[in-house]
Amino acid sequence: MSKISRPKYPYHVPIYSTVDAARYLNIPVSTLRTWIKGRSYPTKTGHKDFRPLIQRPDPDYSQLSFTNLIEAHVLRVIRTVHNIPLDKVRLALDYISEQFKTEHPLVLKKFSSDGVDLFIEQVEHLINASRSGQLAMKQVLNHLLNRIEWDEENIAARLFPFIEAYGEDSPEKIITIDPNISFGKPTISKTGVPTKIVTELYDAGDSLEEIASDYNCTILQIKTAILFESKLRVA
């Protein structure tokens, strides 16, 4: 099976720890580790192992790539839509990989069109999902894919992580994760200003207005950056 035909840098470079990736995506660290390492599960004939859902650039190296970050973001669907066994998800991913001729189908723009329906069809075939369950799965997948922006080669280039505000995820794309900007750390969209920097300035006593003026940002952008970083600290 062929790999995505583009240089390794920057999308496949291992730059994220599992802990950071889980925090950025608001996924439990234990869940992400299971997707990365696989796990053993009981069957009538004994324990079996399922292969990881996410293939790291180097299995002997713990860091994740931006490609892996996107894959984990999309795979949130198995947490949001319940009762999808991980081994069945692996089989569905294998099918999509074969259809798209790549080891990383979830990062292709094509997945947001043809791939979503193919994935759901495979899951339905494997677990006999109800029509309502299929609809919910499609809605969640489309919701997640809407947070991704693709490059000229139709490969995921940047991610706009969810920012939980007032008990729900904000639809605004104010924070960006782009491997070409600030070494892949979260920044304020279209500015390149790291969210960590403005939060440190605010904690040091600078006002929202001062920070916004210094970085030519809006108050909303600064507030959102601080909110995003505060969620990371307690994750």
TrEMBL record:
Domain Putative antitoxin VapB45-like DNA-binding HTH: 14-93
InterPro entries linked to this entry: DUF433, Homeodomain-like_sf, VapB45-like_HTH, WH-like_DNA-bd_sf
Source organism per UniProt: Planktothrix tepida PCC 9214
SUPFAM superfamilies: Homeodomain-like
UniProt xrefs under Pfam families: DUF433, HTH_66
Protein name from the UniProt record: Similar to tr/Q8YLW6/Q8YLW6
